[in-house]
Here is the input.
Amino acid sequence: NIEELERQFQEKIDNDIKIEPRDWMPDAYRDTLIRQISQHAHSEIVGMLPEGNWITRAPNLRRKAVLLAKVQDEAGHGLYLYSAAETLGADREETIDDLHSGKAKYSSIFNYPTLSWADMGAIGWLVDGAAIMNQVPLCRCSYGPYARAMVRVCKEESFHQRQGFEIMTTLANGTPEQKAMAQDALNRFWWPALMMFGPNDAESKHTEQSMRWKIKRQTNDELRQQFVDITVPQAEMIGLTIPDADLKFNTETGHYEFGEINWDEFWQVVKGNGPCNKDRVDARRKAKENGMWVREAAAAYAEKRANRNKE
Ligand code: FAQ
Here is the structure.
């Protein structure tokens, strides 16, 4: 009976035994994973756009080669994640069409514009930095295919974070104009990076259940705090200022206290009303439409070959 299956399932989770695609799982566990993994996949794919915007304008060949490699890595992450969602029975094309119709969510961070080269530094440093903070615990996620995908993804994200911090360091040690560019990028990306971790725990509708299922291993607020604690000294090291007047180190707790996030802005962006939401979804939809002839030609060719083999 179902209650007994659920009990055995939770027992496996409690004993840190991974759940694999063919194992029995509650429908709600499957649905939660499909939701989170597909949103994650969409984030990787949409996340190529803000940086893709600067590939043609990278300041030198080395920077261009590195940025190109990074953006290609994000494509790879998206593909692993769509495959992980497929192991749960999700249909890849349907999932992607949900993104294109505006139904599916993806990370709020990718709805902000990239206005200068320094934004490539800020994204690598802060956005990939936040992504790692969130994804390292996901390597211990209870669902095997997702956990295993995260191991390689995290290795690549570490390289992304380093390349971003290196860009920021170079700019911060450059001319006054370059340093100002780096500071401006930090000013624009700091708060949206903190929003990547999701709503406060008290407002997060999925955290409690996802923690019980060990899909999430740490809460939104725990991860956000770790990110602030690690990142503030990095900003100090390169002489940049975190744009938060309330930021202060609490010597008793050993943590930084920080100001209130603009949750109204966060929910507006999540709902589709951020500065670039429409552009991002349009770009993805057009990519599918413009590439359709390739799919059609490949399908026609495969059909022709299959028919020839039958003869
Ligand atoms: N943006 O109850 P919770 C990357 C939604 S890194 C938009 O707390 P949950 C790498 C949430 O979906 C970025 N929506 O939800 C890269 C839910 O809506 P729903 C991607 C958000 O799932 C770097 C509702 O709010 N990383 O791509 C956001 O327990 C550079 C309630 O929230 C991942 O996806 C947000 N920021 O916790 C690529 C990591 N936050 O579905 C290119 C995996 C929350 O009920 C360049 N995901 N929402 O309609 C997770 O860890 C979790 O899903 C959270 C949210 C922590 C994001």
Observations:
- The first strand starts at residue 248 and ends at 250.
- The pocket of Phenylacetyl coenzyme A is lined by residues 35-36, 39-40, 43-44, 47, 74, 105, 107-108, 123, 127-128, 131, 134, 195-199, 204-207, 210, 216, 220, 270 (CB under 6 Å).
- Strands lie at 248-250, 255-257.
- DSSP finds 13 helices and two strands in the chain.
